TrEMBL record:
<protein>
    <recommendedName>
        <fullName>Neocarzinostatin family protein</fullName>
    </recommendedName>
</protein>
<feature type="signal peptide">
    <location>
        <begin position="1"/>
        <end position="25"/>
    </location>
</feature>
<keyword id="KW-0732">Signal</keyword>
Length: 293
């Protein structure tokens, strides 16, 4: 139960939320947050607060890809809202240990950062510490598990807010990786002059893949070049075939013989920020091909 307290008005605090370089908000599948404060603590007003997924409260976590920062957001079923931020010293990864002499995130300088704010209250300046008892990361800052505690003092006061964070998310999904192959044999269409090339795309998770490429051939000191593109719905678990036709940019058609094929495949990772990219170059033997009338 949330214990309400009477709060003494003070000057309003401007709260800054920095999201540059952070991954998208990650929902928490199983977790809880609790904190309480001494009499005179501005953030808690001396009250106690408890939230959990099991009780119907919404919890999210936001991180950055280099795992130096995490922020847990609480949207209570009763309308409360809070944010708890923990940051490692500059260039360090958040790991299982105690971080002393923390200051207000994101203005902590090169040292550790901490901030508990919400329900319209925040510290202008703060000191404190936090202990990470357990933490487990996945790709690109995916937070798998967290067991942490913290202590925060506003404005140099002796009154403190103390709390705990527990997160037990699903195991991290695989990061998208692509692998492109180019078949050793293609076709030179004798009717329209195009080069027909093909191959396969493999992916670690389902993704819509966009392919672009170039076929280059040299015949009688003439460079024949054409671009191609293709779209492939890649399914994890087995290679998926791709086919494309390169239209020569000049008046000389592609012909039988060797040609260089370059492909670039890209796809948005469905689970993490950013794209997966696969590039491949191969020498292909083009065979004469005359389509049926």
């Amino acid at each position: 139960m949330v214990q309400r307290a009477v709060f003494v008005p003070v000057l309003a605090v401007v709260l800054a939320v920095f999201t540059v370089g952070q991954a998208s908000a990650q929902p928490v599948t199983d977790g809880s947050v609790d904190f309480s404060g001494d009499p005179g603590d501005w953030i808690t007003g001396g009250g106690s607060y408890k939230y959990s997924k099991a009780a119907g409260d919404d919890l999210t976590v936001q991180t950055n890809a280099n795992r130096t920062f995490l922020s847990v957001g609480v949207n209570g079923a009763n309308g409360d809202w809070w944010t708890i931020s923990l940051a490692a010293p500059k260039d360090d990864v958040l790991s299982a240990k105690t971080y002393e002499n923390a200051h207000r995130y994101p203005f902590q300088g090169a040292g550790p950062g901490l901030s508990l704010s919400g329900n319209g209250r925040g510290c202008n300046e703060l000191t404190g510490s936090f202990t990470i008892r357990e933490i487990s990361w996945g790709p690109q800052g995916y937070l798998h598990k967290l067991d942490a505690s913290f202590e925060q003092h506003c404005e140099g006061g002796s009154a403190a807010a103390r709390g705990n964070i527990f997160i037990n998310n699903q195991p991290p999904p695989p990061e998208l990786k692509l692998e492109t192959t180019i078949a050793a044999e293609g076709k030179a269409n004798t009717v329209n002059g195009k080069a027909l090339v093909n191959g396969t795309i493999s992916c670690t998770t389902n993704a819509a893949v966009q392919m672009t490429g170039t076929v280059t051939q040299v015949k009688n000191n003439v460079i024949i070049r054409g671009n191609f593109s293709a779209s492939v719905e890649c399914k994890a678990g087995a290679p998926v075939a791709w086919n494309a036709a390169a239209d020569p940019t000049g008046t000389t058609p592609f012909q039988r013989g060797k040609a260089e094929v370059f492909t670039r495949s890209t796809a948005q990772d469905p689970n993490y920020p950013g794209q997966a990219i696969s590039e491949k170059t191969a020498i292909v033997e083009l065979k004469r091909y005359t389509p049926a009338a």
